[in-house]
Amino acid sequence: MTVQSKDVSTGSNRTERDYPMMETNLEIIAYPASAGGIHTRVLEAGKGQETVFFLHGVGARADRWRRNLPVVAAAGYRCMAIDLPGHGFARKGVSFNYSVPGYADFVQTFLNENGIGDCHLVGTSMGAHILSTLCCRNRSRVRSLTLIGATGLFPIGAQARERIAARISDVSREGIGRKLAAVVYDSTLVTEAMREEEWRINNSPGAIDSFRLLAAYFRNGLDGDAVGKGLIAQAAGLKHLIVWGEEDRSVPIDIGRSFAAEMNSSLVSIPRTAHIPYWEAPETFNATLLRFLGSL
Q: Whole-model pTM above 0.90?
């Protein structure tokens, strides 16, 4: 039976600038790695027995989690984030299957080849879609699943897919600036240095081909890989957390509410944040995630 979900607001009205970073003695290390012969980059913090694996969304990279990794690691976890192929410092170009199933294969191979067993999965946007797919394929590998502004829960239709594909394909300076402004509630948080770095990385050798192929997948294949029904079928036994920015314009919060209702679950909404609440309000998000992990 489907029940009506309730938003569990953090009660905070502040943006990231009001939150001092949690002081820890832990540092993030960065190093190259590979999965199935495809190179990537890892950010890692902590040496806990349980691993928390973080995965970014389209056009981003592992660095988006720099405000979260050391804090969660300080609570006793080993925290890892990687660059997906076509993104950050991972392999770019035409020699990859740029689809959610293709990315799920890559993540599974990375976990296998790096000796990571069952772990806590934390994904945002398309990263949440990828980790949800992995969860549906191999539930025994998943200690818990945290979804943040997830795509791919329900089919969105051709018109919406075309709009997203057009944004993915636009890696001009202006397009990058618009995309960064769209994922935050307070656009003044996006600095010129951020825009410049994002533009340089997303125009590095092979990146344009990667985004072209990824855009084609969004146009033609995304809805066929919707994963919501698979997660709902596992809801009773799946430890999960659903988090959304209240002002998310990329994946509206009503999608999260509908999914939470189908999961017979609750949605944690973070006020005055948009598509990347873990970056805009890290203290609130980190506390939310650690409460969830500590309850398992």
A: yes
